[in-house]
Task: structure prediction
Amino acid sequence: MSEANTKWGILYCPKSGIWSSPAKRWERIEKCLKAEGIAYDHVQSENAGSVDRLVKMLVANGYKTIVIVGGDSALNDAVNCLMQFDQQKRSDIALGVIPNGVMNDFALFWNLKEDELEQNIKWLKARRVRKIDLGCIRYTSNKGEKCRRYFLNCINIGLIATIMNLRRQTRHYFGSRTLSFFSSFMLMIFQRLDYRMHLKINTDEINRKVMTVCIGNARGYGQTPNAVPYNGWLDVSVVYHPQMTQLFEGIYLFVRGKFLNHRSVHPYRTKKVEVLRADRAMVGIDGRMMNTPVGEFSVSVEQEVLNFLVPS
Result:
């Protein structure tokens, strides 16, 4: 077995923002890796667009364990890169994560916490591999091209996509998940609160004004709290436009992790969602804004298509 087969290939995606210290963060990670006796090579991303290129480079050089030191968006880029290879090639590769992003929701689903670096690396070293599902959005771009994009955590359509975008931007300044979350909700009052949508979910057809839709392969930043990325299903939360008093109640329940208890939230479990119309609604995928699809698009699940390193 070649050396690259046994070494980890680590892609370090430094966290941006005024409070971040990428060099110190990497020094701590490197210290933990050496303490565990892990052989590795690492590369560092220059920007968000370089993740795809660097993951392809690691695969081409024979690394079978690829660890992303980053957040949901970096993981999303890595997954979409790996899905460009055939199933036989992917079956030899295991993807892991050391959370280091603005948002680390998929890592938190597995109880991988950013401030528990030593424990995270011990779990990765144990190499417990689980095949996981991916969500997939199929859409037409503004250039008329048929496209698809995979996701680990969720797709948001509408208001929450806007809030997640605000949260990402404000986290760069505040450095705190809580402060960025509440500042994003404060900025929400300047945003459009509902959108005309036409959705098909199972046998239901929804054609009305909707505030937000979350399609979750995992917990969806708290909006699809019962979703798991290994049962072959997507969880969907459709939120109609509540009254102002209900809106604040919804924020409270969201923070308390009881989002599905709100009277304006309508949950579904499905294998496919057809979006026939979503007028001017922003679309976010794993916390990052994507170019809004042109016309109709669909979201489905692909079962057990990726090897992921999970805690033991």
